[in-house]
């Protein structure tokens, strides 16, 4: 009869508190992942999965408050009668980013179409509009 397999790993011997301490140490960069898993007795795969899950994706270009302010500017332009095409919207966002000194946008470079598409999905009330004849008295 073959001998039974006995797990020699550290599965189940760590607590949630140990995991939080290890995550905090890795995020503050006071410990590397390998050192943290040895110190807190946590499995390597579990710790690396938690670290990667906590920092997924790219940092957003604008914060939520800045996006609300930009949306209000766009709505104000629409109410005045200024037609907002895709090109005008992208240049409006570029000038807005230049005004608040966002470093990730190069001077004179247009904002990407993908970013604009995502912005318009997040803010349904700020939309593109075609130019229409506007009575000068209304303007």
Automatic annotation (TrEMBL):
Keywords: DNA-binding, Nucleus. Pfam families: HTH_psq (PF05225). It is found in: Nucleus. The keyword DNA repair does not apply. InterPro entries: Homeodomain-like_sf, HTH_CenpB_DNA-bd_dom, HTH_Psq. Residues 54-129 form the HTH CENPB-type domain. This is HTH CENPB-type domain-containing protein. It comes from Loxostege sticticalis.
């Amino acid at each position: 009869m073959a001998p039974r397999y006995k797990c020699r790993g550290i599965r189940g011997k760590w607590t949630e508190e140990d995991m939080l301490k290890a995550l905090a140490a890795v995020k503050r960069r006071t410990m590397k992942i390998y050192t943290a898993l040895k110190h807190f007795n946590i499995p390597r795969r579990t710790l690396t999965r938690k670290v990667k899950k906590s920092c997924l994706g790219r940092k957003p270009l604008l914060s939520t408050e800045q996006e609300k302010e930009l949306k209000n500017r766009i709505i104000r332009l629409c109410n005045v009668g200024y037609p907002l095409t895709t090109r005008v919207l992208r240049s409006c966002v570029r000038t807005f980013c230049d005004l608040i000194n966002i470093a990730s946008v190069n001077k004179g470079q247009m904002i990407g179409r993908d970013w604009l598409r995502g912005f318009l999905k997040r803010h349904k009330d700020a939309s593109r509009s075609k130019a229409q004849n506007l009575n000068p008295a209304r303007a």
